[in-house]
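Here is one chain, start to finish.
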Amino acid sequence: MQNLARNSGATVDTEAAFGQVGINMHKGKGGTMDYAPDSPAPRAPVAWVHGNPGPFGLLCFGMTTCTAMFVITGWVPSTFNQVVVGYAAMFGGFGQLVAGVLELIKGNTFAGTAFSSYGCFWMGYAYYRTLEIQGIVKSASVQARTGDALYHGLWGFLTLAFFVVTLRKNGGLQTIFSTLVITFWLLAASSFSPKAKMAAGYFGVFCGGSAIYTAIAMLYQDELGISIPGVRPTHYI
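Its structure:
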């Protein structure tokens, strides 16, 4: 081949030539040339989500929770529920569900499961409250007190299961989920006790405020490199 190249006056790159037809050459035993199909280099995985959906999801949860608890504590009149419904449907519901899906795409099973669950909770809440405001259905806390108590109690047990996972996360998430467990169980008891309802409102405001704080702490850490208390990883179990 080299003699042929000299005779024709052209320079031949044998490796490039064989590469064009999908063949690689390498020396085998005894100096002979072996031929193997050309195999493409492995590609790096594509990152579908480049940012951190965590702060957004926590803000969706915290802001909506505080808004709803303003009514339960009696700080605002019950007519404010119409504002709560809109917030619950779009910010606490749809927004948090989007954050959950993005977390699942990133491979964060816990964050995706929690955000998606509470996002669906708020969307269901908004749908039911809309029917209640329009007079299509009656208040469950009046007509079905036991069912309302069991409903909130069940969410309390689910939140308790989530809380166990946070023991390997950080103090901010542990505060959020522990106070949310108490809030749900107080809401369950509020079907039979006005004092429990008032206590649920105050615990709920603290829980929502904790979520807002944790979201801002994570945002500052990611964007500014500033570490504030509450986001340091823990490993209690």
